[in-house]
Amino acid sequence: HADPRPLRLHFAGAQRLRLTPDGDLAIVAKNGEIAFHKPVVYQLQNGLREPVEGRFQILSRNNIAFRLGSYDRTRALIIDPQLAYSTYLGGTGVVTFPLLTPGPGGAQGIALDSAGDVYVVGTTGNASIPSDFPVTPGAFQTENAATLAGKPTAFIAKFDPTLSTVIYATYLGGSGGEDNSGGDDASGITVDSEGNAYVTGSARSCDFPVTSGAFQRVNRTCGVFSPPSTNAFIAKLNAAGSALLYSTYLGGSNGNGGCAFSFGCYPGDGAVGIAIDSSGNAYIAGNALSTDFPVTSNAYQKVNNAASRAAHNFFISKLNPQGTALVYSTYLGGSGCSSPCLDDKATAIAIDGAGNAYVTGEATSVDFPVTPGAFRTKYLGEWPIVSKIDPTGSTLVYSTYLAPAEYHEYPSSGYNQGNAIAVNGAGNAYVTGFTDSCYFPVTPDAFQKVNGACPLGTNRGVFVSELNQEGSLLLYSTLLSGTDIVSIGDVANGIALDAYGNAYVTGSTGSTNFPVTDDAFRKVNHALYSPRTNAFLTKLNANGSALFYSTYIGGGGAGINGDIANAVTVDAFGNPVITGGTCSSDFPVTARAFETVNKATVVNPSDGCETFITRFRVNTATGTTLTSDSNPQKTGVKVRFTADVTANEGGAVPTGFVVFSLDGTPQLTSRLDDTGHATYSTSALDAGRYTITAMYLGSSTDSPSSGDLGQLIIGNPARIAVASGTYQTGTEGTPFALPLVVQVQDIRGVPVPGAVVTYSGAGLKFSSNSAVTNAEGRASVVATATATGSLTATASVSGVSTPAVFKLTAH
What we know:
This protein is mostly beta strands. Helix content is about 0%, strand content about 45%. The strands form 15 sheets. It has a 5-stranded mixed sheet with strand order 39-45-44-41-42, with no helix packed on it. The longest helix is centred in the C-terminal third of the chain and has 5 residues, at about 600-605. It is elongated, with a radius of gyration of 35 Å.
């Protein structure tokens, strides 16, 4: 029932606005032209979009309005929802990836630099068409060396903030294993302050590109096994994407076994995540099957405890800034399980400012290392594990299960895994993943206390948990899932934090009623047929008790495959960017995206998958500036306060309300106008000094902010005093050398500006019989004697009974 006519867009700094023949809006600016696509307007009916005619209308002063066709005013109307930028990335090679676990065909890691450029890393299977993946001229590796069709190789791509331009895109890999046994898989990326990208993953190739002086220049399984197994790799790529600053293998020689490479469980040694500290040391976590994985003399655990079962242990390694030596390297794990792929499995790593490393994953060993006093130390089956290791790699600060206090019959245990981890400035670890359990530990104020998969116990729900810095207490823990599950469940794969402790979680959902918010980009799962999935993005508040924002994102899928988000990062303004894999031909992309078509589905509509990258605008930081039209101002005279609210990113004008307060007491709530201004006027302030505060309350896309102003209100004149010019001696007919200066003050001694002072005196002539006080409360005139002898001048002001008196002498 709302009226859309007052809605406005304002473009600050534009020289001219114009509409294109297609209805797009072109903004002519100083250094070029920016285009906004014609508005998308629709209503939802039974989960489907009903389009509504809509267009831009140019108004005066660089303002834009919307003109709409007829629609049902009893239902919500959506005008251009806040999907900032979204693009496909890939080639026409037909590849697939398994549900829940990243594999060939999708990006697995994401990072941002200080300029807002987006870096993604992953795996592409377009080996049959080496030139088809959109690599850029001058990139480090422009040809896919894995010549056997379908064999995966790693890629790295860097986009501008709008996802419309690829700054660079490069392959990174060798010729792959023998007999289509696998290739090279990138799993994690991070970026330093200079824009250098650090990438990690696993390599089956014996000719993966390495640099001279690298810590390990060979895949140690080559020549030992046929086909060779995997070693981890770590590579540092320069900011232009044109050269390797270093690249090294990291692994042992006897890691042949385990499980299928394509399902993220490496047959040898493989890395799953990477982080860097301010000195450029790289911290890598992964899984080692080898018994001779490189460890250091000070390692916490020097042997693979699961070697007798041919199973994996975690590894955590710290590589020096040059990539030439290990600072430390250690195993971490128990004796494993008898079944392949049911061993201890690391999935992610994060570090804090002190250089402590935090890892998460799944522990299946009954003797996985846990520490006394940790949150849960009792083995109850397959549960997420969180471990914190000190900067030397020699001591476990803590290690704990994320599990209930006691064992419960199935479906209490099932399959539970931590998939992503982030750390705040206090050293608290935030972990997310999935659980089959009906008894996953939650806190009293949790947003969702019951797993939506229960009591079925056959599907998965998301969990998000925050551990204190000692690993002894859950600060919060909540579930996040739907109940109407048409696929294999809801799974989180990525987590990131903003400056306020809000957690951004992303992954995949097979639920038709996954929790979404009213302002969601998409409220409906578009992949409605089992077992397809859509991706999701959720912003959870700092207490884990409420959702700020939650949305589906995805298309209809293809074959049995849908859309999976694997990683998320957050920019300085609190806006998330996610990446993953999509097998949809109708995944939502923006008009000027780098790639608007899933090229893989063009070749195979039923089974084509590519990478996607999507940037949301859900929390733009704002700034509020407060000014007054007169400071100081007199009592009884109106003073007008103006709050100017601006977005710190982009040209959109914030909307919503501002609360004006006087010394902490609210006075008025005012709506922002179409230029981002709100005002408060009053003439009721007594004399004194006040603090005026303007608090912008924020909106669905703009964060709150505030501004303060010290305002001085001056009372009526209460006294007038000589400031200078008395006791002068002069000559009749000649002006005295010094002016006659007075100061007018109120009852508190504060100078009063704007007061009219009247001068008089026998035998004296004045340059003006009256003067107005300045900002310091001072007024002055020049006196000339018209007689000789002792003369007296007086200065008076209305409301003050005692004038100021000047004593003068003339000859």
